[in-house]
Amino acid sequence: MDLFRLAAVVGAATLACACGRPHDPGGDGGGSGAHGAVTALAISPGSATIELAPVGAGYTAMETYQVVATYADGASEDVSATAVVSAVDPSIAFAGPTATATVVGEYPISAELAGTFASATLDVALDASATGSGFDPGAGSGLDGTPVGGQLPSIAYPLDGALFPVNIAPIEVHVQKSDASQTVARISLTSGDLLAFHYYAPCAPSPNPAQFPDACIVDISGAFASQLAGASALADVQLQVRLAAADGSMLGESTPIAVAWAGTALTGGLYYWTTAGANDTAFNTAIARYDFDGDASQPSIYLSSADAPAVPNGQPQCIGCHSLSPDGKQLAFSMGGSLPGYYALYDVATRTATATNFTDKFANMSTFSPDGSRAITMAYGDLTLRTTDASLTTVRDGLFPQIAEQKSHPFWSPQGNHLAFVSWTPTAADQQAGQVTGDMVQGAQIWIASSTGSDVSEPATLLVPRADGVTSYYPAISDDDRFVVFDQSSCSGPANTPGGWGGGACDGYNDISATLQLIGVGGGTPIALAKANGGAAPLTTNSWPRWSPDHGTFRGQRLYWVAFSSRRPYGLSLASGAGVDTTKPQLWFAAIAVPDDGSAPAADPSFAPVWLPGQDPDLTGPRGNHTPVWTSKAISIE
Question: What stretches in the chain show pLDDT beneath 70?
């Protein structure tokens, strides 16, 4: 059945009364009278646990509170009808003293009368089961039996230790069968005393059955994530899977993994560069986007190479190296590849060019000022501040001349207080091959400079100094100007395709050994985001990290999301080989939770990452998805 829509409907319908019923403006609200002023207030039950029960397509539970006031003369009175009983969380709605809950969790409850308060705690639990489409109810008893010794299916996705946002759908579980006859599954999601949920469903095959012949894939409605987020606010969710044949034989049970869901949703628009898949014939490269404020499950092609401005004869009709203004209204990209460095500005809403420049070596990369009126562009190791109108007027050229190296990978912070970039010295081989465009930055180090929001101040400060055997590159600054996330690759790691563009092991372009690192904007020792990377040296091209446009909280910590591209395997849907560059990269995002008091994290603050749903319409011949750019809004297209 379709389980979970009602929770959202009930929550939306009752938001207006979520903070309780207001006092009667015509009376004193029971606050004073014959007995004098209220001196104390008590609410009961002070602690209660209620069980959610199925109602329509969702779940609900109710609790009625009694509020007693004590007055100055020592008298007491039941004031449940006049006190305001409320909860901060909108998933708890009140009609008078009666609470209606729709989501698992632990909630503080408050009663107020004449400026006097009392508090209580309400635990909302769920112990339930549901079935997926096509599941034979008769198979349920077999899945609830005693597992057969030696039958140990394994969970391939989600990743152990992953943290999901509440608005990603559907919830996918990939399980490697322990026997080919297993065709039905029971997904168990449990958390402490608050959540015990069993989902029964038939196994779906892998979209790549030749690679994964014994895969079992089960989707759970994304609406159920609100229940999981409620439980995860207190503790991780244990996910465990049972598989069996249709007759209940060959019953096996996996080892559980720990996952969690955050109430902080993904927001805004995510624009990324994609290269054509095996069955794409309309374009060779394109810019695709997600609208997380709309449908977070499917991307769309925003602009393809075929629809971009035509480049001069003899140059490839391709687009890339894109950037967007923080408000999502302007798009910039290069055309024709890195060598010619042609450039275009687009109005996102109308999908029309507002400026183009076909001068050789005009610009490859760019970053917008917070208000979008200016951009810093990079061409062949030179940074230029220019306007973003039709003239593309140069305001200042040759930024940071005191750094006697070439510069690239500029990133202007969304608040406008900082600019991060890298510097490097091209090798003789790069110079001879003409690969000095700024794509490859072997031996790069990262700088940070102050900014007024429309210009940058000099000199810059060295943030991540050059180190032997590594390259540090692709810096990005968080929405609150607190952290810089960047890439670092190892020169002892495997090289990319020999002779290919950016084929070096640590040239800062498509490096297989790339890992995500974190540092404060004020400097310090970088922290490797090992859980997001997939280990200390995963060799899966964890590249081009970009922050979400805002942040939230999770278990009392400040929570960020970071999107990046990676060649890691996607469960049992897309294979990967560590240390090779033949696998098409996919988009992933990882949560980062740090102390909210401004102090630096003492250890790796990242979580295992999550695959971005729907990014490949055909996983048998996937697209290559790279270089995400996050904006505060996905502008509506006119």
Answer: 1-33, 296, 429, 432-435, 499
The Cα–Cα gap between 351 and 331 comes to 9
pLDDT digits (tens, 9 = 90+) for 260-299: 999 999 999 999 999 999 999 999 999 999 999 887 678 9
Length of the chain: 638
Q: What 3-state class would DSSP assign to 2?
A: coil
Yes or no: say if 590 and 608 are a contact pair by the CB < 8 Å rule.
yes
Tell me the C-alpha distance between 47 and 51, whole Å: 14
Q: Is residue 261 a contact partner of residue 601, using CB atoms and an 8 Å limit?
A: no
pLDDT value at position 32?
58
- Prior bond of 170 cis (ω within 30°): yes
Q: Which of 461, 509, 503 is nearest to 487 (CA)?
A: 509
Q: Is the peptide bond before 165 cis (omega within 30 degrees of 0)?
A: no
| Predicted pLDDT of residue 11 | 37
Determine the Cα–Cα distance for residues 140 and 618; give it in Å rounded to an integer. 32
Token match 């996918």: residue?
172
Question: Which residue, among 167, 3, 14, has the nearest Cα to 101 in the 3D structure?
Answer: 14
Scan for tokens 């729907």, then name that residue: 614
pTM over 0.90: yes
Rounded distance, CA 579 to CA 41, Å? Answer: 66
Predicted pLDDT of residue 117: 98
3-state secondary structure of 72: coil
Taking CA atoms, 530 is separated from 176, 368, 516, 564, in Å, by: 25, 30, 8, 14
β-bridge pairing 237-244 and 184-191: antiparallel
Which residue intervals of 58-174 are DSSP H helices? 140-143
- pLDDT of the residue at 576: 86
CA–CA dist 606, 115 (Å, integer): 43
Phi, psi of 74 (to 5 degrees): 90, -10
Residues whose CB is less than 8 angstroms from the CB of residue 356 and which lie 6 or more positions away in sequence, other chains included: 309, 335, 342, 343, 344, 345
Can you give the pLDDT at residue 26? 34
φ/ψ of residue 509, rounded to 5? -145, 110
